[in-house]
Amino acid sequence: MMLLNRHLEHNQPLVAADAAALGIAGAEEAERFLQARDNHSETPLHALPVLASELEIAALHVKDEGKRLGLGSFKALGGAYAVIQLVLEEAGKRLGRAVDIGEINDPEVRAIAAQMTFCCATDGNHGRSVAQGAGLVGARSVVFVHAGVSRERVATIASFGAEMVRVEGGYDHSVREAARVAAERGWTVVSDTSWPGYERIPGLVMQGYTVIVREALRRLPEPPSHVFLQAGVGGFAAAIAGYLAIVLGEQRPKVVVVEPARAACIYATAEAGRPVKIPHEQPTVMAMLECHEPSLVAWRVLSRIGDAFMTVDEEDAVAVMNRLARPSGNDPAIVSGESGGAGLAGLIRAAGDRGMRAALGLDAHSRVLIINSEGATDPGRYAELVGMAPERVPLQTA
């Protein structure tokens, strides 16, 4: 399904808080923090000319976040960045002066961090980032996971030092439980979704994601005409789209938000014209996108600069995983997890439909940017769906 944005706020400017969080200054700050981390390196941007030709577009580039900071996901940029920012802010309050990222290992800063506990709910990737960020600064982390999160993902998060709490129900249940327990115990919630009265920290998480598109724009021969962005609660899509809109202005690309048909809360919100919660029914293979209520901050951004909203089916996501692992011609192989290629699945679906092509202006001149948001964060599940272990995929380094 596809729905064009008919919302009254479509193409209106971002509100001031969102423009500040997702603008150039905020993105530069996020990148400065990232460069201070020991294992930072820019993730690759791959051109896929053979697939572009098949889709009858001019160019297709995939930014591969499966290699980000050893966590295998774009989420490595968000939660950890927010945790570090919050620790430095708290240290600044207690020490009575500004505290910079270069002081993160100073004993007096680490002593303050050791008194702080950060918690979150996660499908897997966000929890890794929060746990890693807490570990970097010497803080405590508690991560809430719902019934559908695999044991392998839970074990990986725990390996970063997080205390794990299993919650019955789905992702939205774990979000509410994390918020409830944190309020009782005085912990700081670092969530990638937002709700009334809780917006700044999700804004910091989103700010961390802007590094992805800053890197991509430096490498692309021309800015993209279209970007297909997968969404769970919508924070990732809003961060990428928001930065592009601020930097490129009227030349910004057309933004298409892609969700699993089984968990399409942004699509339902766009259809209703207001944030709505959808029922939890069948689980989706795109586990990192299995969210049933949008982030209010994300929707505020996407209602303005999301041009279309669409859904993809389970088999679409699995087909993309396989296509990227076994590319045609000289296109590079890419390891893409179950949720990582959802944006590409949306492009392939749209490119093959005459009506969607026309509605989106996809043609032989289109330059499309896709972000592979995760690698094989659950290697066993990847091997099951692709028929090949992720380490057997013949990767290129650039």
From TrEMBL:
<dbReference type="InterPro" id="IPR036052">
    <property type="entry name" value="TrpB-like_PALP_sf"/>
</dbReference>
<protein>
    <submittedName>
        <fullName>Diaminopropionate ammonia-lyase</fullName>
        <ecNumber>4.3.1.15</ecNumber>
    </submittedName>
</protein>
<keyword id="KW-0472">Membrane</keyword>
<feature type="domain" description="Tryptophan synthase beta chain-like PALP">
    <location>
        <begin position="39"/>
        <end position="353"/>
    </location>
</feature>
<keyword id="KW-0663">Pyridoxal phosphate</keyword>
<dbReference type="Pfam" id="PF00291">
    <property type="entry name" value="PALP"/>
</dbReference>
<keyword id="KW-1133">Transmembrane helix</keyword>
<feature type="transmembrane region" description="Helical">
    <location>
        <begin position="227"/>
        <end position="248"/>
    </location>
</feature>
<dbReference type="InterPro" id="IPR010081">
    <property type="entry name" value="DiNH2opropionate_NH3_lyase"/>
</dbReference>
<dbReference type="InterPro" id="IPR001926">
    <property type="entry name" value="TrpB-like_PALP"/>
</dbReference>
<keyword id="KW-0812">Transmembrane</keyword>
<dbReference type="GO" id="GO:0008838">
    <property type="term" value="F:diaminopropionate ammonia-lyase activity"/>
</dbReference>
<keyword id="KW-0456">Lyase</keyword>
